[in-house]
Amino acid sequence: MAAVDDLQFEEFGGTATSLAANPDATTISIEDPHETPKHQPGPLRGSGREEDDELLGNDDSDKTELLAGQKKSSPFWTFEYYQTFFDVDTYQVFDRIKGSLLPIPGKNFVRLYIRSNPDLYGPFWICATLVFAIAISGNLSNFLIHLGEKTYHYVPEFRKVSIAATIIYAYAWLVPLALWGFLMWRNSKVMNIVSYSFLEIVCVYGYSLFIYIPTAILWIIPQKAVRWILVMIALGISGSVLAMTFWPAVREDNRRIALATIVTIVLLHMLLSVGCLAYFFDAPEMDHLPTTTATPNQTVAAAKSS
Amino acid sequence: MAEAAESPGDPGTASPRPLVSLGSATKGTEGEARVPPKEVRGRARDLRDLLLIHLLSCLVGDLWGPLILCVTLALMLQRGSADSEKDGGPQFAEVFVIVWFGAVTITLNSKLLGGNISFFQSLCVLGYCILPLTVAMLICRLVLLAKPGPVNFMVRLIVVIAMFAWSIVASTAFLADSQPPNRKALAVYPVFLFYFVISWMILTFTP
């Protein structure tokens, strides 16, 4: 009898902690002694949840999730629903930008800065700024490179703004969508402890693009070596932010799939930066061309630098 | 016009709005002999107040002024059809869409952040604050009739920067006040980006 009472007490504990996760726990009846083996997963599940809290680094994660649930309760066709995605203050946006610029090993951008309050302000306006930074810097850089040439006629290349906008916004929304879908699919196969909502992934991607704004401005410098060094630095910083954010989400999975996911994330990021550099910025030719012997030297230099 | 907008004849009462400068401009007409620097300052204040009076019409959500300004700017920025194929400048429709789409986006952003300005008022303010940039475009077109060169470019650059600063100051005065204090910068930054892009289009205009 005492054993049953102990199990009874145990079960209350198990029910309280895993109530949200497993409502079936409440339906296990205590009077049936055959159920005893099934109680064993209970305490394991309970300790698993505590581990979960430690990994998340947040003792009151349940509380914050509850609060988040209470916050976003308006139906999606009201204006208030969308206002919840802009519920950030100036200092919070600055903190998130700072977090994307200084990746700390072991710290997770989502848990540290976003904390169940993903915003759309950062991703949207960082992408908008990046679009114009790339288009304007590319235009300026091409102007400076071709400055001395007699046959060069300056054009503002306004079409490139729309192309840049399509590329950047597609990257900032479709890649998170694909990644979220992939993570949800893996979650159904392997029980991952950490999982992100779609908006949190969009948020991380948006803020990770911030480093490319100063990079694009510095790409005006018409030196190939400088540009590639900038690519490496920017990729290093934002790639590590993304890798450290998503590693906990795929860590539980098959080793190869986890590594492949991280490598794909970083590879797509690199593709974006190298693609933008190649398309919007002309290759810098040799700087000190003698202006007397114009055409042959230019073609030779162009062949050398391409 | 200045007297009509101000409540008549109260030199003693201190009005809390920037309209108090209208009072000082009207006070200036008391004496005919004025020191030139004060006159210049009075004229500058009159110009700013002129813009503010038009902005007052935004209280009723007037959109005619912004529409006329936007059409004027777009007409001046577009190319002639002869060389439009090899030119990379914006077309009329592109400028129009950018101005109105940008203004709508900034207004939506401001309201989503929790500002309490009405939709049409915000559109109106942003539209009217295109006026300095339209003036800059006009001046740039005139300056471009002269001989091209670095001096030509510097003059245009200074004019565009000055008008850009004026646009920002005028629109920020209205839009920042409607936001809670911890989000002012978040609401003002898109305005900065918007006018920066328009200024860039004006500066890079080549006939």
TrEMBL record, chain A:
GO biological process, one term: vesicle-mediated transport
Keywords: Membrane, Transmembrane, Transmembrane helix
Domain Yip1 as annotated: residue spans: 101-273
Source domain of life: Eukaryota
GO MF entries: small GTPase binding
InterPro entries to which the protein is assigned, alphabetical: Yip1_dom (IPR006977), Yip5/YIPF1/YIPF2 (IPR039765)
Pfam families per record: Yip1
Keyword Transmembrane helix assigned: yes
Region of interest (Disordered), ranges: 15-64
Compositionally skewed regions (Polar residues) per UniProt: 15-29
Tagged with keyword Phosphoprotein: no
Transmembrane segments: 120-141, 161-185, 197-222, 228-250, 257-281
Annotated compartments: Golgi apparatus membrane; Golgi apparatus, cis-Golgi network membrane; Golgi apparatus, trans-Golgi network membrane; Late endosome membrane
Cellular component aspect of the GO annotation: Golgi medial cisterna; Golgi membrane; Golgi trans cisterna; late endosome membrane; nucleoplasm; plasma membrane; trans-Golgi network; transport vesicle
Membrane topology summary: Multi-pass membrane protein
Compositional bias of kind Acidic residues: 50-59
Family, similarity comment: Belongs to the YIP1 family.
Official protein name in the record: Protein YIPF
Organism this protein belongs to: Propithecus coquereli
Origin organism lineage: Eukaryota, Metazoa, Chordata, Craniata, Vertebrata
Gene expressing this chain: YIPF1
TrEMBL record, chain B:
Keywords in alphabetical order: Membrane, Transmembrane, Transmembrane helix
Superkingdom of source: Eukaryota
Coiled coil region boundaries: none
Membrane-spanning ranges: 51-75, 95-113, 125-147, 153-175, 187-206
Residues annotated as domain Yip1: 61-201
Membrane-topology annotation of the record: Multi-pass membrane protein
Record localization: Golgi apparatus membrane; Membrane
One Gene Ontology molecular-function label: identical protein binding
InterPro entries referenced in this protein's UniProt entry, alphabetically: Yip1/4-like, Yip1_dom
Protein name: Protein YIPF
Organism: Propithecus coquereli (Coquerel's sifaka)
Lineage, uppermost ranks: Eukaryota, Metazoa, Chordata, Craniata, Vertebrata
Gene name tied to this protein: YIPF6
